[in-house]
Amino acid sequence: MKEKSKVNKDKLEKLLWSVALPGFGQFLNDKYVKAIVLIILEFVVNVMANFNHVIVLSFHGEIQESIEQTNYLWLMFYPCLYFFAIWDAYKDADGENKPFSFLPFVFSAYFMTVGLILSPSFTLMGKLIGPIWLPIIFLPIGIIVGFALKWVLLKFST
């Protein structure tokens, strides 16, 4: 049996590789078919949404141009694909499936998608935030809501 600290390091490593590119954590978990499917899906959504170009424009402060270049119908798939891959790699890392452990990942994806939908018109102090930064701003809200709901459900289910 693996030591607890070794398992936690393995889970963290696989989670972080999945953050780098959806599917990498699945490769480390020896889930090759799932890894290949996730990597292909990530590339298809990325290319069809024009995601990399939008990221570059956003980092250069060209928010209006990034909004115009975004294919929202494709990019809305990205948060769910991304957080599913992260959760799946984390879950498979030690084979343990704790109750409601998926909730922070699900709500992160949900709130990032809402941020993406609002991004063409949402302003903060009169400035457009855009399709990259607004979903990132919404991410902590999703994490907090997911952990809070997990805590409540665990509290009342025992």
List the helices and strands and how they pair.
Blueprint: H1 4-20, H2 24-28, H3 32-49, H4 51-59, H5 63-69, H6 72-75, H7 78-92, H8 103-118, E1 123-124, E2 127-128, H9 130-157
Antiparallel strand pairs: 1-2
Helix pairs in contact: 1-7, 3-7, 4-5, 7-8, 8-9
Q: Give unreliable regions as ranges.
A: none
Strand order of the largest sheet: 1-2
* Helix residue percentage: over 70%
User: Helical element count?
Assistant: 9
Task: Provide a descriptive summary of the structure in words.
The protein has helices at 4-20, 24-28, 32-49, 51-59, 63-69, 72-75, 78-92, 103-118, 130-157, and strands at 123-124, 127-128. It is mostly helical and 158 residues long. The chain has a two-stranded antiparallel ribbon. It is globular, with a radius of gyration of 17 Å. The chain starts with a helix and ends with a helix.
What is the gist of this entry?
By secondary structure, this protein is mainly alpha-helical.
Give short descriptive properties of this protein.
mainly alpha; 158 residues; 2 strands; two-stranded antiparallel ribbon; 9 helices; single chain; 3% strand
